[in-house]
Write a structure and sequence with these properties.
348 residues; alpha/beta; TIM Barrel; five-stranded parallel β-sheet; three-stranded antiparallel β-sheet; 34% helix; 18% strand; globular
Length: 348
């Protein structure tokens, strides 16, 4: 029996829904906006978070309001099939991936509501106990690169682990400084993004220097060209993927069989596709780790909950949201204790 079979037939009653706008001035050049979906039925509420990055997409959706035909009696699976037929955007979104992000917001809210109406938690439904979650802090080093913020975090939390966004300005000296800390779990080359503000072109020299200089780090999302493939051939056991992983088929079609992949829930769009990826990775002996999307609301707790159930001991990019901001003392440390709500798909 598949993992999805544990939840597909959960009854789901939706009477109405509402949208809640969230925003945070994360940096001077980054106003983060998200939308929380609230589904209501049988005196219960299910919530999910739309992590689409372009703020205009949230403004348009919130201006329209709750116009989708969601009310009715469903199973979780029939609701998912219904979602697949709906147009979730007024116009083609800035990125095709946003279609998955928005669908995940509604599907995660539906999963939450169905579980609450059934009076069970996600852990109960899938017969798994939550375990403390190992997490990394994801960050770039700026331009020109500086370890100032990286060092500040390490002074506060000497055992903290990191996932760092590389760029062509990284020098051999910088890489050596990072290696000496033994705190870098993974390096993200951003080579698989297209049409985003973080796109990074393939660079064989950068990949070689990072792979050689940080021999214990995962190498995420390299851009592939004949030159970069030649560099990576001797490091394929450390190559992992994120931006292009939206389904089991995407994992099957990777250039090299992976030892691990970034299973980022919002990229999968539906609960069925996400759970199929968990099943596939477990059956194939492929590791998984979770990733965040600058969630401002319940979405962060939900990805931490999934990590606690399915891959707690891997370098999960699901740190408490305060780690996205400036270094401060008194934050929860890794491994993170994740407490499930008694019912539903939510971490307390």
């Amino acid at each position: 029996m598949s993992l999805y079979d544990d939840v597909r037939n959960l009854p789901l009653e939706i009477e109405e829904y509402s949208l809640e706008a969230l925003e945070l001035q994360a940096r001077s050049d980054f106003l983060r906006k998200t939308t929380v979906i609230h589904l209501h039925g049988r005196d219960e509420e299910g919530i999910g978070e739309d992590v689409t990055y372009h703020g205009d997409e949230h403004d348009r959706s919130q201006k329209l309001g709750p116009v989708l035909p969601l009310a009715g009696s469903w199973t979780l699976d029939s609701f998912s099939q219904h979602m697949a037929t709906l147009e979730l955007f007024e116009q083609e979104p800035e990125q095709h991936a946003y279609r998955d992000y928005r669908r995940w917001a509604y599907e995660s809210a539906a999963l939450d509501l169905a579980l609450r109406q059934a009076n069970v938690s996600l852990g109960d439904a899938v017969r798994r106990e939550p375990r403390p979650v190992e997490f990394v802090v994801s960050m770039g080093l700026g331009s020109p690169p500086s370890t100032e913020r990286f060092d500040a975090w390490l002074r506060l939390y000497p055992a903290l682990r990191f996932k760092l966004d590389a760029n062509v300005e990284w020098s051999d000296e910088l890489i050596a400084v990072l290696a000496a800390t033994e705190a870098v779990d993974s390096v993200d080359f951003k080579g698989q993004y297209r049409g985003t503000t973080v796109d990074s072109p393939p660079d064989a020299d950068l990949y070689r220097r990072v792979a050689d200089g940080l021999p214990g780090a995962w190498l995420e999302d390299p851009g592939l060209t004949p030159e970069t493939e030649a560099v990576l051939e001797s490091h394929v056991e450390r190559v992992t993927w994120d931006a292009i992983i939206h389904s089991v088929e995407d994992i099957e079609n990777l250039r090299w069989p992976p030892r691990t992949v970034n299973v980022k829930p919002s990229r999968f769009g539906s609960v069925e596709r996400l759970f199929a990826a968990y099943d596939y990775c477990e059956a194939q002996g492929i590791g998984a780790y979770g990733g965040g999307q600058w969630e401002l609301g319940p979405g962060r707790g939900q990805i931490q909950l999934l990590a606690s159930l399915f891959h707690p001991e891997t370098p999960n990019d699901v740190a408490p949201r305060a780690f996205n901001m400036e270094p401060e003392d008194g934050l929860p440390e890794s491994p993170l204790e994740v407490e499930l709500r008694q019912t539903g798909f939510l971490a307390l």
